[in-house]
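Final report, Chapter 2: Outcomes

The project's central promise was a pipeline that accepts a single protein chain and returns its three-dimensional structure in a standardized token representation, suitable for archiving and comparison. That pipeline is now operational. To close this chapter, we reproduce one record exactly as it appears in the project archive, with the input sequence first and the structure output second.
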Amino acid sequence: MRISKNSTTVTLTVLLLMFAMTISIVAIPTAKAQAGSSLQTYAIIGATPNPVGVGQETLIDFGITQPLGDATQSWTGITVTVTHPDGTTETLGPFRTDATGGKGTIYTPNVVGNYTLQTHFPQQVVPGAIVQMFGPTIPAGTTMLASDSDKLTLVVQQQPLTYNPGVPLPTEYWTRPINQQFREWAGIAGNWLTAGSGPLGAAGLIADYNDAPLTPHMLWTTPLVMGGLVGGPFAGENGPSVGMEAGDAYEGKWTGSLILNGRLYYQDAPGSLFGGGTSGSPTLYHCVDLRTGQQLWTKTFLNNLTISFGQDYYFASYNYQGTFAYLWVATGGASLFGPPTPLTWYAFDASTGDLRATIKNVPSGTMLTNPTDGSTYIYQADITHGCMALWNLSALVSIGGSWGSAFNGQTFNASATVNASTTVLSTAAARAWAWNVTIPKGLQGSIQAVNLTQGKVVGSLVNNTDVIVWAFSVPTLSPSSDQLKAATTATLLFNNDWKAPASWLSGNQSLSWVATDLTYNVGVVWSKETRQHYGFDLTNGAYLWVTDPQNYLDVYLPGHVIYNNMLYSSGYAGTVYAYSLKTGKTLWTYNANDVYHEILWSNNWPEFIYIASGGKLYFFHNEHSPNMPLPRNAPAFCLNATTGEVLWRVDGLFRTTAWGGTPIMGDSVIAMYNFYDQQVYAIGKGASATTVQAPLTAVTAGNTVVIQGTVMDVSPGTKETSLTLRFPDGVPAVSDDSQGDWMKYMYCQFPRPTNATGVQVSIDALDPNGNFVHIGTATSDTSGLFHYAWTTPNVPGGYTVLATFSGSDAYYASYAETAMYVSQVPPSPTPTPTQALPPDTTMTIIVMGIAIIIVVVIATILILRKRP
């Protein structure tokens, strides 16, 4: 049995809530406790499940029946004695309870037999007054007497317990919402919560919790703005046939795009040059179902503002648990052309787009997110004066025990409690500062990464003579909780000064810190002039390695991404480099070759990594300021992150934007803006539909019949008018290898590919006796049709014929069935006996007659000769 931390929390909450409810409804003595007096306590013990299989986990819950008066208070020093079947004992704890008076711990017995459990509550003093709903207040200072629970027998059996097997991952096309019982599906239902934008697409992002697409199959498209080729006499600087304006330098379109719980949010106008809103006329944000392309709503946020980030926040109180989804819009803050203005955040309901809350005077700093519950933090650090503070949004807004009820049109002030009817009155503004710690003074440079789970901050200073790397500790955050451990003074972990090679200074090299990863504990410095990476150990700051030089064109802002225990770099040279994080050695390279010589300065296409997911890397082409007409056949490709193997590549289907929104991924679907035609594209595994038919009249056993049917692509995009007019009989499904050119033909009106192939279909049957018969395997053509000639067996009766397309990387599986009847072979007729006929003597008589005549004639002649 495996009990996750989240499951433990849920179980404990339910149990302790039951205890609290019991306390609230049981009659309480009316005598008022006096300060300094003592009260009897009642220790408790439980184990779930009980019995349990040997080697399986059970949840032991313990504490006393008396809850405390404040959520920050607890009983301390509680222990649990475990007596083993052989009589030996062990002590669990000491433990600190939560405010309900109880706690839990996981225990795994490893011997078959009966265990005995008992809780021991030590005498202690009430830390603060306990105000009870149906009983007297227990004053602070009251002594709670020691008590022991009853002894509990935990039965451990040889036979393991059986638990819910779960729901397997989908083999058919799926959509949101996902039933909450399908816990296993979490691995394919990821979000993209940071607006997908970044000049030149230099930074790739990791998109975990997705079944990343293994083909360029498209689910749907929809126009973003009027786009594509203009036509007519229009001609650009470099020739005829210019297209509609598509953004970039410096009006990138599709900025502020993100994916939250299966919904895609994007705007239909260019963002402003420096972010923080859009320019020009009001901009509509579109909310679209990511897997179907259905538009759910459109709206403008306040005064034409841009979504800053999305949030799934899991709130767990003693009485309420659930996740709230918000779109956050920000105004104010830092300014390029004047002093900063107060920063205000607005939370909008991600489902409806309605305003839910306003947070005034949000502190400046760098935002962090707890990946396990979505809570939002901002840290401020003053390296010069040696102090660092962490602000917790959740603590500010969690008023009254529920994020949801608090986020109902209310306004919060992060700087102070304001006495106004529209502002929540509380001390939350002060409580929102989770900690303020003293950090080591004299550190040079700036912070590069903060990991609250590890409790580690890493920073650096890079110049032509030194690379200084340092780290210090900070209070840690529980991986499954929004609560931080008690603040302590920061401890310097290391402060290492590596002396750079003399060539850095003599060559006037441009150095920059470009990548930090606290999972693999490696930081990376880039030298622009030599096109080399330098690796540094983030456990001690020591120098690790240097890579070989990259192509000279990579002086123009390449991307640097750490993923899969490797460093990846790509850019204007059009070469992807993969380096070992341990040694800096080049493990593989891939060239995005330009087959038709469209790029004027290179034999390769400039390519940038935009998404890393599931051991796969996704690359798309862009350019800072492309000229008209656009270069043709820009490649998009997916590489195996470990080996560099090309998993798919398609030339001329996609081109992304340098200054607008980047390709993003959620729910195993890539959404992107296509610079070639100004449409939004969704890339992912599609739905298929199979049909089959067999002769409707009975056939005689042993005869040959034709079984035929179709396998069609029924993804949402195939229902668009533009495709139904071209494919009135439906869109055929094609092989994975044909996807690239076929998608160009379907959605971009390229010529129909002549080398496309269909998919394989297994044709099977159930005979009249219920036996499975594999008839054969057919391959569909590019009209979707498949057929197979089958010589029917000698078993007469009804047959169920099945045609199964088992699916591919491009399509989910589908099947169909039909019926046919095989009749018995008619028996051969029995020959009728015939009577013997008398011999025919006609010829004999004729011959004898002729012979007699001849004899008579001869005799007559002889007689006549003898006469005188």
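Archive annotation: The chain has three domains: 5-157, 188-225+241-683, 688-823.
This record, like all others produced under the grant, will remain available to the consortium after the project formally closes.
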